[in-house]
Amino acid sequence: MTPKDPGEREHRLRRLHAENYPDLLRFVERRVPPSEAEDVVSTVFLTAWRRLDDVPDDARPWLFAVARRTMANQSRSWLRRRALDVRLNSIDPTETPDGAAGTAARVDLVRAFRSLSVADREVLALIAFDGLTTEQAATILGCRRTTFAMRLTRARQRLRDALAETPVKDHV
Amino acid sequence: MDQNMTDLAELSQLDPARDREPDAFETLRSEAALERIIAGRRPRNAVVWRVATGAAVVAAGVTGLLAVPALFPSAADKAFAGWTATPTPVDPQQVLPEARNCVKSYGGDPATVTAADIVLTEQRGIAKSLIVKHGGQALECMSVEAGDTYASQTLPAAPLTPANGLLSVDTRSSIGQGDTQYSHVVGFVTPKVTGIDLILADGRTVHTSTAGGWWTAWWPGPEAGEADTIRVVAHTATDSTEYRIAQLSSK
């Protein structure tokens, strides 16, 4: 239960911020350009302040869900594309420990990941990128844990299928 | 993550925020925003958000507003009004500010961008599109006014070889609703192709831009988000071949 005392409310919001700001910023930056991420994060904490009574003890999935809705419902420009699609790390051969072979494998992985639906990419990213449990991820997507687990299983299978079908392509 | 989750562990290598830690300035800004929230003021960095329906505007900020198309006539209206079915190529040097803003919007250093990094440019009315190389990837950005980036996406670092030896589609989408809905396509093309036209279901023809192994076009309307209503005509020196757009997926 959220304390009614204003000082305690402020203390709780500051604690939420201290414990979740880096994870929340990373969550948002995986989905929108970094230049816009801070605005989204600020909006999340504004929402948390206004709805502090609704924030559960395990606050992270609640905050992420607010961030997800913020990104989905608000568009800073009429041309916003792929607002909730997940971005990928760039492929730099010099940063790949096993050199060309590792780079080729990552190119395949990128292609396989990009071949999936946005919904599949989001399910995989919540686990692989955001490091959430299936229960937390289910909270963010507003579904049952068992439903999310099933979607994750199917998305992983489709990723494996796509990898099996994706040879390394020559560049033009 | 147990052994059965190794695929997810491998996938985590692609996490764009894998080693990301907020720096001291970001943390200070965020803490300052938090204090303003507690004090009953909105975060200084909150911006004017344009609602996706294109009609309503929600003002969420007071200061530090960015140049977003929140005023009427909207950027969409102006971009659509000046849209042309045939694009005009633009000298990369002339879109260097837009390219630098594009890279900056992805957290890159704009000062490192040169005209040589810009691999494709086009202009349709007041809207400029470009593809710029940045690090290990390519970025595609569109700007409408004052060089600001209004749309962007990441692309593969280099164009991939189309399976049919001529062209393929990498991404296609439609965005928005009603009068502000627009379509956008980006694909790969080989030097054998001299031009690509899109024929929409209503009979309109959209001429695309090609350069450096890429091709692209945008137009007002929903077609790129529809299942398979666009015909794509690839012209070569000897003939022309027509495809359904769904045939050309690079996936």
Automatic annotation (TrEMBL), chain A:
Residues 18-77 form the RNA polymerase sigma-70 region domain. The keyword Oxidoreductase does not apply. Pfam families: Sigma70_r2 (PF04542), Sigma70_r4_2 (PF08281). This is Sigma-70 family RNA polymerase sigma factor. It comes from the Bacteria. InterPro entries: RNA_pol_sigma-70-like, RNA_pol_sigma-70_dom, RNA_pol_sigma70_r2, RNA_pol_sigma70_r4_t2, RNA_pol_sigma_r2, RNA_pol_sigma_r3/r4-like, WH-like_DNA-bd_sf. Keywords: Sigma factor, Transcription, Transcription regulation. The keyword Nuclease does not apply.
From TrEMBL, chain B:
Residues 1-22 are annotated as: Disordered. It comes from Paractinoplanes bogorensis. The chain crosses the membrane at residues 47-72. This is Uncharacterized protein. The keyword Transmembrane helix applies. Keywords: Membrane, Transmembrane, Transmembrane helix.
